[in-house]
């Protein structure tokens, strides 16, 4: 680089730094003061957040430099070769477009802010001006382009199709037809009418979601991710399964926060997949284990890939209620993946020798991270504060804890204070930069929902789904499963959940399934689309890191994650898994856990000691179905049957506990 290029890069980096720090500081201020209504806050956050995103895109494509790890991992060619070719065709002009996008983002947000009172109260009655419609159209185009750059063509295509459908209504056949919308209608309902882009999705995203994403970004900067990986590596040296189970735990923990199975596979997989390969785990299995664990992390409370906050807002129930309802199903999936991985490791002999005692100093090295975590649990569960308030107190606690920790460990000095302040400000910037790509996609989902609801398509799909299934619960659920997987393909967690809950969940609710159960049902299958061929974005990322065959990796991912496709039906048939009661919840949960083990044994062909032939695998499948879906009156019989069957099978067909895996 010449001197002028270096100067421009430093200037851009400085601008990104200032905007990132300011956005996180503003977020904390809004969480504390709540100075104005959420829609107005969403507009300000949208303008600054999208501008920050475009500035970072400029830095990445013009100067080719990136210094925020999570942002780098997000851009793993999610838009495929078409998006890459588009950028290459634009060449040096792409930087000009991204800079222009940043300017437009600030300009349209300023326009909405300056005209907010008129747009909120007067315009719906007296009418909108031509400039209002132009600004609304610019906002729709802006968030669509930001979404394309952040998450690829999958979501952007849905935005384009939704807008095209809204405008082409009079020419569409059958139930797809409607009166149609003009471009002014699209601009109004999509943005300038303070709906669509500014709907509840962006509202939740710029409050509850934003503060937790920013907190996660700050925690990474403070070293939380490194601490988790260090503890995992130390545990891996002491477990027979080595680093494999540790990889599952760390990937699920981080996956709950990231909001994207593919991004989490890239982030943690860049560490865990090579670690598993060094232990001897075959390439396709290493990639499959990571991709399944990262996808499952989206289902784990308390964040659920930020979908928990959106779900609480849509259902208008306390956030703690969402956590309670999702806990047992999430643990079932977590448990099934852990058992499947253990069986695979034992079957192929990918075990390690335990070496010495656990080094407790590694655990103590990050003990201070327990303080903000305890505050988070206390504020959410005990005090039952909103996620916005809980996120504020947790973030402040983490900053204070880091100052205290550094002053104690490094000694009280001006250098320690300055170093910690720099680290904190860098954490502010990193948190904002990690949130920036999500702002556009949340706004884009608001546009999609506005177009689908204004045209009545969402209601028509639900009615048709129930009609085609004849109102039969099982048929409706199977159809909902297929649709949820299809609508979830290639989507990050918030987008996938929002889309399926608008299009698919109403049909399930109509046949008598409780709302929260229906939401969890479609959400699970939307998440499982990340490991479902032919797209399977998490599998694609994992296979790329492991240098493994995509189809073979997808096959192994389905084997390991197979119970996940049956668990949602289990909490439909056993409602006590969602609506807790004593003793029904304890009994049902115990039996379903046993059924999950039987199902894992059938899908992996191994029961922990012996390889299983087809008859025994079929028996395990039958017993697992009884355990998962039997009525409460048969619980004790099922438990006894499974126990006796397991004991009987363990004495049959004794084969060596491990075989040499073929590479």
UniProtKB/TrEMBL annotation:
Which keywords accompany this UniProt record? Answer: Membrane, Transmembrane, Transmembrane helix
**Keyword Transmembrane among UniProt keywords:** yes
Q: Where are the transmembrane segments?
A: 12-32, 38-56, 95-113, 125-144, 151-172, 192-215, 331-350, 362-383, 390-408, 435-453, 465-489, 495-513, 520-545, 557-574, 586-606, 618-645
Q: Which Pfam families does its entry note?
A: DctM
List each copy of the TRAP C4-dicarboxylate transport system permease DctM subunit domain by range: 139-578
Name the domain of life this protein comes from: Archaea
Q: What is this protein called?
A: TRAP transporter permease
Species whose genome carries this gene: Halomarina salina
């Amino acid at each position: 680089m010449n001197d002028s290029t270096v100067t421009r890069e430093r200037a851009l980096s400085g601008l990104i730094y200032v905007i990132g720090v300011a956005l996180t500081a503003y977020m904390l201020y809004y969480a504390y003061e709540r100075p104005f209504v959420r829609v107005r806050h969403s507009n300000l956050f949208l303008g600054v957040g999208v501008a920050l995103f475009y500035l970072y895109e400029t830095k990445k494509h013009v100067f080719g430099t990136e210094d925020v790890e999570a942002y780098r991992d997000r851009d793993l060619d999610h838009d495929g070769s078409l998006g890459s070719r588009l950028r290459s065709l634009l060449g040096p002009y792409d930087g000009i477009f991204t800079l222009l996008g940043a300017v437009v983002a600030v300009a349209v947000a300023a326009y909405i802010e300056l005209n907010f009172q008129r747009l909120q109260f007067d315009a719906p009655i007296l009418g909108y001006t031509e400039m209002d419609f132009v600004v609304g159209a610019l906002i729709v185009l802006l968030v669509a382009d930001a979404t394309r750059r952040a998450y690829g063509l999958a979501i952007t295509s849905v935005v384009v199709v939704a807008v095209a459908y809204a405008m082409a209504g009079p020419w569409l056949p059958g139930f797809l037809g409607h009166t149609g919308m003009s471009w002014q209608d699209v601009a109004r309902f999509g943005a300038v009418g303070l709906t669509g882009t500014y709907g509840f999705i962006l509202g939740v995203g710029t409050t509850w979601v934003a503060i937790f994403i920013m907190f996660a970004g700050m925690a990474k900067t403070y070293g939380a991710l490194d601490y988790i990986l260090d503890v995992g590596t130390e545990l891996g040296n002491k477990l027979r399964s080595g680093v494999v189970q540790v990889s599952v735990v760390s990937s699920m923990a981080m996956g709950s926060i990231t909001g994207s199975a593919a991004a989490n596979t890239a982030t943690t997989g860049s560490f865990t997949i090579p670690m598993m390969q060094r232990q001897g785990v075959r390439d396709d299995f290493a990639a499959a284990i990571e991709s399944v664990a990262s996808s499952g992390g989206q289902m784990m409370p308390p964040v659920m890939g930020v979908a928990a906050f959106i779900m609480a807002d849509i259902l208008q129930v306390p956030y703690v209620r969402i956590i309670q309802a999702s806990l047992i199903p999430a643990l079932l999936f977590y448990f099934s993946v852990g058992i499947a991985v253990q069986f695979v490791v034992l079957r192929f002999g990918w075990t390690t020798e335990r070496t010495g005692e656990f080094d407790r100093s590694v655990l103590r090295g990050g003990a201070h991270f327990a303080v903000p975590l305890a505050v988070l649990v206390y504020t959410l569960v005990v005090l039952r504060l909103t996620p916005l308030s809980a996120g504020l107190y947790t973030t402040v606690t983490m900053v204070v804890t880091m100052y205290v920790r550094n002053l104690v460990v490094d000694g009280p000095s001006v250098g320690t204070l300055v170093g910690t302040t720099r680290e904190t400000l860098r954490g502010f910037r990193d948190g904002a930069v990690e949130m920036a790509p999500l702002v556009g996609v949340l706004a884009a989902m608001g546009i999609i929902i506005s177009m689908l609801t204004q045209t009545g398509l969402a209601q028509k799909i639900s009615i048709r789904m129930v009609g085609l299934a004849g109102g039969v619960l099982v048929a409706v659920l199977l159809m909902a499963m297929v649709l949820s997987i299809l609508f979830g393909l290639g989507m990050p967690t918030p987008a996938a959940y929002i889309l399926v809950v608008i299009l698919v969940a109403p049909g399930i609710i109509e046949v008598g399934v409780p709302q929260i159960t229906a939401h969890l049902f479609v959400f699970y299958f939307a998440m499982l689309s990340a490991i479902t061929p032919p797209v399977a974005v998490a599998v694609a990322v994992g296979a790329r890191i492991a240098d493994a065959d995509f189809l073979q990796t997808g096959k192994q991912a389905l084997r390991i994650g197979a119970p996940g496709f049956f668990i949602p039906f289990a909490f439909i048939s056993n409602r006590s898994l969602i609506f807790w009661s004593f003793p029904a919840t304890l009994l049902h949960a115990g039996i379903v856990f046993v059924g999950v083990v039987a199902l894992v044994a059938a899908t992996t062909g191994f029961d922990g000691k012996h390889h299983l032939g087809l008859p025994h695998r079929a028996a395990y499948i039958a017993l697992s179905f009884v355990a998962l879906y039997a009525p409460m009156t048969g619980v004790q019989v099922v438990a006894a049957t499974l126990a006796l069957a397991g004991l009987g099978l363990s004495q049959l067909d004794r084969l060596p506990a491990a075989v040499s895996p073929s590479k």
